[in-house]
Write a structure and sequence with these properties.
Four copies of one chain form a homotetramer. Chain A has nine helices and no strands. By secondary structure, chain A is mainly alpha-helical. Chain A has two domains: 48 residues, Arc Repressor Mutant, subunit A; 132 residues. The interface between A and C is small, with 5 and 5 residues. Chain C binds a DNA duplex (21 and 21 nucleotides) through helix 1 and helix 3.
Chain lengths: 197, 197, 197, 197
DNA sequence: AATGAATGAGCATTCATTCAT
DNA sequence: TATGAATGAATGCTCATTCAT
């Protein structure tokens, strides 16, 4: 009726709070890798396995699929927000950081396809939220005369467009195409690299 | 006891070659609808059901998932090829037809993300092939001075970019964004509609 | 991304419509046994195994847990309804049939605990429905002067009470206790046996 | 480097024997609540959480699921035993206390379904034991001419019958049905309330 | 040639139980 | 002695694919 383990094997067990944090990090790292290889729909079991933990641990830390994706992509968005908040930064530089994440994390590209209005009803809520955070970060730096400043939607449409261009087997390949995309848009982009301060 | 088959029962009735062709068409039409509603990962059983045929028929006509997707998207590509081959047509008009398919068929958008070089190893071969056929169709009409003519890759990068912009709940929504995308690229587009001759 | 069987093994397959009906019957029979042994919460996989079919077959025939339970208990209820509808029958005889099912099918007892008003919110809807059908069948035969006729609820309370008395390892044991219960209620019961006409 | 433990950290603080007893009581109280809300199959983790203790504490005090259920129901039985042992009490009054527990604690009802002979092989041993204790308490007060005195089994069959009648969403609902059950049995019941002396 | 039943692998999720801290 | 993280078995459910009829 109720489940009861049949095996007599000794079962390994927990490793305290420190291990918990380590596991959480391992799960996020594993998810990032698996997402890159198999997309956001990858089996959660694969992520747990890659992280070297049981299925339960994944659920303990992330109650549902969204929570995990959110945690993974949160880091990407945060870096963009930080970059946008630093002193004396201009839009081009932040677009460089954005582009770096687009080329680095295939899953992140998917999020930027979600315009703020939830494209298809299937678009997960977290994607919309993350997309809006990126938009807020960028818009503050958008100067009046900028090519993307004339119409309200243009900014995120352009970001989506670059996402559409970011394909290819290696990061370098993807970066080349992303740069070409921005060039075609006539928008200046700074160095494509992660934000570090 | 030599009982004659009274055959009161309606036999499913094989239907001959004509029915076979009709089934194939019904499957493609059903797949197009289901793909639009549930994406390319929709259960094949749903497609068979919508087409009003058994699962077996689907497998008879399309040995695997790719074959069906291919058949569905083949039609989109063929229309673009036909449009590009008509008399006195110019690039803008064909881009209009292309854009119509992008806004109409979400699945088709996915194909155009596949640049000719097979972006991710996961990209199915048919996507690459279809993408290349679109490229060939367009490139013949690309005049020397066109904004997308200066670098070899620009043409399909631009197409991919527009695909990236095509999000939204309704076709109208998606068309508006596609037009904005072409505008940002400074590329002229003709009427957004299917090709009919 | 999408699941694809890794194994190369030949997989057995279906056996036509006749087998389908046979499977359905096998599932119901298996469920009846398993319910008797492990209660209504028994794992569905155990039922499928006992019936000698795959999990999918169970879901094809019974979309959810309720549907299967319903199908199993439906037969019990139907016999009572039939008994109640036969010519010249009186309440005592139908109570005999009811009692037979109470002693035969432990799961059926559970259903009769569900008064028409859904005892706990957890009571499944089908239990309520089946219980009400039993009540309707019995009430038509309830004569004015009967010990259970004075108050509206008394009829099904009495049925529930007998259910509460029906415990014990063997059917005979349970029948003995059921008879004692009816005796304590001062209610006459006919022969305890299934309905056959 | 002989660093003194500054112990700024609040250690969970073992708490000594007093805390242990407090935890045990908290677990029983929590279990009673959870059982009432979710039935006897409720997750143990929920009980530990409600009690405000870790899972480990639960296992320290109650090695398995039965031990906890036993401890919870033990209290119900003890009250009945105490009531039956008080001066000048009669059967009707004790049945009132018994009925109160039946209406209050759904889990307790289940125990009373277990006649002394272990109805189904699945019946846990503790249920049999508790049931027998209730029987002993009641039988001593059973006067010779009582309606339940003529046959040995009648007493606990009647108790089981009332248990079978005790359904409904609220305690009041259940009490009304329990009273009706005793009325149908022609057995007098005193005030339905917990025993307090 | 079509039907649609059956198989069974795969993924999500829950929870009893252990054990490092 | 208490905590609560981790394990992993069990179960529910879905779907691609095969094949008897």
């Amino acid at each position: 009726m109720t489940q009861q383990p049949t095996s007599d094997e000794r079962r390994p067990a927990s490793g305290g709070q420190k291990a918990a944090a380590r596991n959480r990090a391992a799960l996020i790292a594993a998810a990032r890798e698996i997402y890159a290889e198999h997309g956001l729909d990858a089996p959660l079991s694969a992520i747990a396995r890659r992280a070297g933990v049981g299925q339960g641990v994944l659920y303990r830390h992330f109650p549902d699929r969204s929570a995990l994706a959110m945690a993974v992509l949160e880091e990407n968005v945060r870096q963009i927000e930080r970059a946008a908040a630093s002193d004396g930064v201009d839009l081009a530089q932040v677009l460089g950081v954005l582009t770096w994440h687009q080329t680095e994390s295939t899953a992140f590209v998917g999020v930027l396809h979600a315009d703020g209005a939830a494209s298809r009803s299937g678009t997960p809520a977290y994607a919309v939220e993350l997309s809006q955070r990126v938009e807020r970060a960028l818009r503050r730096l958008l100067p009046a005369g900028h090519p993307l400043a004339s119409q309200r939607e243009d900014l995120m449409i352009a970001v989506g467009m670059v996402s559409g261009a970011v394909t290819g087997p290696t990061r370098e390949h993807r970066e080349r195409r992303a740069r070409a995309a921005w060039r075609l848009l006539g928008v200046e982009v700074g160095p494509v690299r992660p934000y570090e301060e």
